[in-house]
């Protein structure tokens, strides 16, 4: 498999797993967050996001770590394997909360050099913490539908960190 999409809810570990897949396989890893944000938390327009994702997915080999609905059709048209992180809400939200607080406290750059703040993490309508709750069920249903569809590209759902590690050890 040379074209892999790692999909899951916010905080499920998509970027970490996609990066590790790239390291183990030698496939180029592309951080979707870096393609969809400019410095200063300036969002990239949908049209430009589609162009950037199309350029990545035109390649013969890639690992990407997300799938936004506005351009998900692009990688799905070429993907050979979907790895879905179908973790329980408590686990993915706990990871997201720990990651967010860690990024704030350590001033860790994210999303193309941006920095999370207490304000945008906890008091903004666009907070990733809120987005997690708004999108969890939809993304979970989508992954499970892909796995159940025999005409869809191969989809592997991983439901625990132990399953992730076992699967990754065989890559």
Automatic annotation (TrEMBL):
InterPro entries: Cytidylate_Kinase-2 (IPR052922), P-loop_NTPase (IPR027417)
Origin: domain of life: Bacteria
Organism (species): Paractinoplanes toevensis
UniProt xrefs under SUPFAM superfamilies: P-loop containing nucleoside triphosphate hydrolases
Protein name (record): Adenylate kinase
